[in-house]
Amino acid sequence: MDRKDNEKTGKNFRIAIIGSGAGGILAAIKLYQAGVGEITVFEKASDLGGTWRDNTYPGLVCDIPSHLYRFSFAPNPDWSRTFSPGSEIYSYLRRVAEKYNVEEMIRYNNEVIRLEYYEGRWRLETNQGDQGGFDVVISAVGILHHPVYPDIEGLDSFEGDCFHSARWDHNVSYEGKRIGIIGTGSTAVQITSAIIDDVEKLSLFQRTPQWVLAAPNDFYSQEQKANYRENPEEMTSVYNSLAQTLNQGFAAAVVGQNDEALAIIQQGCQQNLDDNIQDAELKARLTPNYSAGCKRLVVSDQFYPAVSKQNAELVTDSITRIEAKGICTADGRRHELDVLVLATGFDPHRFLADAEVIGGDGQTLNQAWARGNYAYKTVCVPDFPNLFFLGGPNSPIGNFSYLLTAETQFAYVEKLISLIRHGKLKEVNPKSGITQEFNTNLKKEMKGTVWVSGCQSWYFDHFGNVASWPWTFDKFEQELSEPDLSDFQN
Ligand code: NA7
Questions:
Q1: Quick one: which atom of ligand 1 is closest to the CA of 296?
Q2: How far is CA 341 from CA 54, 182, 233, 259, in A?
Q3: N or C: which terminus of the chain has fewer CB atoms within 10 Å of its end residue's CB?
């Protein structure tokens, strides 16, 4: 399998992409356009779209504004609202994939179960069998992908319908029924707001209150959409202004670089609560005891009105067990339910944990990451040469649009791939010392972020590390602008 550098061109150069969500679609399009070898996308499901394929629950909208949540090469004049419904984002991804013939590169129902680096190539195996050798592997497996099921006694004994929010069962009607929702993250907030008027009773089981920022989700008029279609430069200016607001405002605030913006966010959340919840006792139970932005901020102007309705109950006594007919809480009550929705979030730290990934020195990725995930500048890992991550460890998942993050990372990865193809590097293998230094700095910087200011959230892994990017957007762009050859083994 050892091949000469001058063979690393055209069809001899094979690239595997894992996952056909937004990141995988992006990588496939860009590599195809650049004419980089033979590209295969391995997708374990039977459809593309990643988290936007999996999540179909009522009320699903993206918490990043629509015109920011798009690929730079595929602006979309037809977004219906300020924050897009999930189904629209799924359709957008499908449309973009179709336009660039991405499906021709996808092998559906192929879950990557093994990768082994041997003499300059990755031997890749899926549940369908051996797929041969690849010069480069790009992991685009996503972050909001592995549902977390709560470990609550008796969960299996519940006799009604029960499902995770990311596995919404559309055969189950919730109209006129007694619904229980466990969780108060973005998902639970959106579901509550969407179904409250259709159900007999909704019991929302809150373990920790969330700060909620009210942002109206206005519809774009036909005129606005036509204007964007005819004048794409206007979409660009909307994008630029949103990107500036988000990157210099919110994204800088959460990493301790814009205290004024953080204070404004805090005030905005408090105002939303004050304006919408009159009942002092309910308000107290909905008020978090940590700073806004510590947990991922929830965006909704409908949640407080919804949870104040007659048929809504905010349950804050802790869950003791689940029984056939409902949920029991510490105050001795049993909340009878017909349908139970587990809006209990995702494990964003798993990446390729379900596959056996054996690096250049025989160590597995799970062994390398046994004390927590780490990477060189979010995209590659020492001793796992030519394996790249989009949305990898410490990507800015709590800061800005994932599509923007993935594009920035991909542009950098493309440059690294080019170094291999043009013989400047035999393989892309970041030095351990440099990677360690990067991660030591990262941990130091993390201490100044709002995420560690006193709350528990899905950003934390099992070892207490925060999975996000502790610096500004400018720093992210700067770090990933040009590869520094001296950071890599040669
Ligand atoms: P999140 O934000 O991780 O929220 C999960 C919620 O589920 C949160 O309120 C948790 O409470 C609650 N939870 C989890 N396990 C339990 C148990 N065992 N008992 C009670 N409550 C529990 O997930 P989402 O799906 O809402 O949102 C994920 C991201 O998707 C979101 O940030 C947006 O970016 C889009 P806790 O706060 O941990 O006490």
A1: 32
A2: 15, 6, 43, 37
A3: N
